[in-house]
């Protein structure tokens, strides 16, 4: 009789646990996170900066406990013998959108070409989680990657978040609590876009490739002189100009270049963009 009662009691306990787990699952089935890269800039040919944004795109209430992530770059962007550092320019602080999260740790992984960051998750009971309002894109942090040798910054637009789980690779995950559940979950970004370069400052080279010279078409909402630097594929500066920008002016370059591939770096105030040009 005792054995029978024990089995009945155990069955009831299991059913209660399954009910609780099922309730958590039902409450959290519609959560989604979007993590994006925005505002990629190159202050100089040895530095790249970018922002990471987070957005609750689902239907459930989310409390953010941590974000680990990595941005991967093209193998050609940074020389293999360069000394490379990855750091935080703006991270979760009292003046940011994420005032209570733990400080970010950063590292650069040369073997996987990854810029990595992480922070230790905070507990729901600590009161330090951050409520993510649905549909609002929030700046999580701004990062900076610096190389001891000139980068091929024409590959800046190819930066992307590492989403896949691979050996030796760090993938991007958000640790969240949904609907105030005390058990956290790791949520893979379900909707990401990357490599967004601000359309407030953009340049095109026409034609490209070119035979004699090319024209720079600059679109900007900013005032101030424009600095133009041209580097060959060895990273040597071959031409530099400071131009008083006028929307009606024409910037022509390349007549004295030899045939080959060049990196052009355009800077106006704090805004920088780069691209490749080819002379036949």
Key features?
44% strand, seven-stranded antiparallel β-sheet, elongated, 280 residues, mainly beta, Immunoglobulin-like, 2 domains, four-stranded antiparallel β-sheet
In a nutshell, what does this entry contain?
This protein has 280 residues and is mostly beta strands. 9% of the residues lie in helices and 44% in strands.
Account of the protein in words:
The strands form 4 sheets. Strands 3, 5, 6, 7, 9, 10 and 11 form a 7-stranded antiparallel sheet that branches. A 4-stranded antiparallel sheet has the order 1-2-8-4, with no helix packed on it. Strands 15-14-17-18 form a 4-stranded antiparallel sheet, with no helix packed on it. It is built from 1 helix and 18 strands. With 280 residues, the chain is mainly beta. β1 and β2 form a beta hairpin. Helix content is 9%, strand content 44%. It is elongated and about 90 Å long. It folds into 2 domains: 27-187, Immunoglobulin-like; 201-279, Sandwich (Immunoglobulin-like), CATH 2.60.40.1930. It has one helix at residues 2-27; strands spanning 33-44, 47-56, 62-72, 84-90, 105-109, 114-118, 130-132, 138-147, 160-161, 173-178, 185-187, 201-206, 214-220, 226-232, 237-243, 251-253, 260-268, 271-279. Mean pLDDT is 78; it is low at 14-27 and 193-199.
